[in-house]
């Protein structure tokens, strides 16, 4: 069965988890399909924004417990230590592939985002959640640690003591509390509709400026020194000034019309 669908329209790629009958739980096929969907969008110049969502009652309930039996019979070192995607293994790439896309990614969350499902959402630039969504860094419940890329993102979003409490307890938190912690960007009664609204706004901005902004933010969050960040600000700006996308943005604003970026 298909696990993920990808539809591209008006420069927006809608990536949908389609295992709704299983709350989009992550079995091996789902993991591979999510990574393949993200990898397949790399370098696609027609795509300006990605919206990530899940069918059925939940965004993603985390690891499919049926997989524990498969893992029990495997060599854990061989299972998780090989680096199949640069610095990441296959499971970590579920989160990291979205950070590697050149364009903004918006995740629309509903139902639950547990364990690996939460880490998948963390790969997005922005997370819109229904107020009744529940989130959890759930790995400790199963005697494990977060290991799907979340530990790259979580320390950038949260205070250390709050992050430690979530990891150590595996407690579930509501969307409003998660927003206060930095896990959720915005609450919406219809997170997918709101995500699409934001995506529509972003798709009308200069594609080259949007990609430059994502690169620049990544540098600034990487721990680079002040001189490096200032240099990258100037380098990215120099590459934009006077170029066709910037000139079209200026003309569209002056003429009060929708821009037409080619």
Automatic annotation (TrEMBL):
UniProt keyword Isomerase present: yes
Q: Which GO terms are recorded in the biological process aspect for this UniProt protein?
A: fatty acid beta-oxidation
GO MF term set: isomerase activity
The record's listing under InterPro entries reads: ClpP/crotonase-like_dom_sf (IPR029045), Ech1-like (IPR045002), Enoyl-CoA_hyd/isom_CS (IPR018376), Enoyl-CoA_hydra/iso (IPR001753), Enoyl-CoA_hydra_C (IPR014748)
Protein's pathway: Lipid metabolism; fatty acid beta-oxidation
**Keywords on this record?**
Fatty acid metabolism, Isomerase, Lipid metabolism
Has keyword Repeat?
A: no
Q: Which family does it belong to?
A: Belongs to the enoyl-CoA hydratase/isomerase family.
- Listed name of the protein: Crotonase/enoyl-CoA hydratase family protein
């Amino acid at each position: 069965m298909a696990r993920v669908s990808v539809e591209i329209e008006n420069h927006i790629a809608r990536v949908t988890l389609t295992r709704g009958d299983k709350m989009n739980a992550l079995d091996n096929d789902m993991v591979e399909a999510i990574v393949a969907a993200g990898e397949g969008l790399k370098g696609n110049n027609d795509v300006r924004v990605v919206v990530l969502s899940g069918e059925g009652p939940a965004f993603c309930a985390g690891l499919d417990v049926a997989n524990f039996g498969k893992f029990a019979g495997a060599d854990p070192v061989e299972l998780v230590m090989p680096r199949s995607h640069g610095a990441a293994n296959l499971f970590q790439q579920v989160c990291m592939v979205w950070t590697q896309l050149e364009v903004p990614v918006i995740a629309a969350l509903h139902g639950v985002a547990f364990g690996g499902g939460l880490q998948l959402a963390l790969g997005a630039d922005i997370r819109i959640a229904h107020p009744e969504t529940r989130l959890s860094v759930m790995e400790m419940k199963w005697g494990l640690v977060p290991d799907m890329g979340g530990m790259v993102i979580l320390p950038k979003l949260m205070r250390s003591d709050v992050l430690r409490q979530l990891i150590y307890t595996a407690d579930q938190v509501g969307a409003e509390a998660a927003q206060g912690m930095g896990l959720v960007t915005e609450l919406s009664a219809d997170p997918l509709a709101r995500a699409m609204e934001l995506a529509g706004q972003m798709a009308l901005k200069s594609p080259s400026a949007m990609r430059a902004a994502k690169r620049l933010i990544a540098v600034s969050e990487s721990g680079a020194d002040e001189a490096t960040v200032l240099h990258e600000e100037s380098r990215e700006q120099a590459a934009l000034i006077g170029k066709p996308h910037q000139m079209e943005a200026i003309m569209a604003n002056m003429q009060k019309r929708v821009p037409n970026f080619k």
